[in-house]
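Milestone 3.1: sequence recovery, worked example.
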């Protein structure tokens, strides 16, 4: 399966939104993705593409010396094929290359054990809970990775 990960482009927003709307109970709007791409200098968004079709995406905010994962999602019929891993590791690489950031955080639904397992595999640890964080009142698990550089292709521990 030949998959490339590349920067998200405005032309990708419709496909990304379809994945977003399927994966999340409270999806971001197309306008939110457009705003992030066009007006937020702190963001980096990427897409995973197979046969010219977007099959997954992810984004981060780069804030001073840390990166905050905004979202990662993979189209249902492409799950369990390590695409989420590709996206996560690509976001780590982007954070490192942009500002030598090696700390990363995120919020993940308390019930999303598959995502939590992926994050733990790459050094994230639970740091707390945000009660009723999501619109449907589900709690968010706050996770931090204080040094993801061991997971980069050519480890660059500093």
């Amino acid at each position: 399966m030949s998959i490339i990960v590349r920067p998200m482009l405005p032309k990708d927003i419709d496909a990304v939104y379809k994945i977003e709307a399927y994966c999340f109970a409270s999806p971001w709007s197309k306008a939110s993705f457009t705003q992030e791409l066009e007006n937020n200098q702190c963001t980096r968004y990427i897409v995973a593409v197979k046969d010219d079709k977007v099959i997954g995406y992810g984004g981060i905010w780069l804030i001073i010396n840390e990166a905050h994962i905004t979202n990662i999602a993979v189209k249902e019929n492409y799950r369990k094929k390590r695409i989420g891993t590709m996206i996560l590791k690509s976001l780590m690489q982007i954070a490192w290359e942009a500002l030598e950031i090696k700390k990363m955080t995120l919020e993940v639904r308390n019930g999303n054990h598959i995502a939590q397992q992926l994050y733990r595999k790459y050094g994230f640890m639970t740091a707390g809970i945000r009660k009723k964080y999501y619109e449907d009142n589900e709690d968010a698990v706050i996770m931090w990775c204080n040094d993801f550089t061991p997971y980069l292709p050519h480890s660059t521990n500093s």
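The chain has a mean pLDDT of 93. The longest helix spans residues 83-99.
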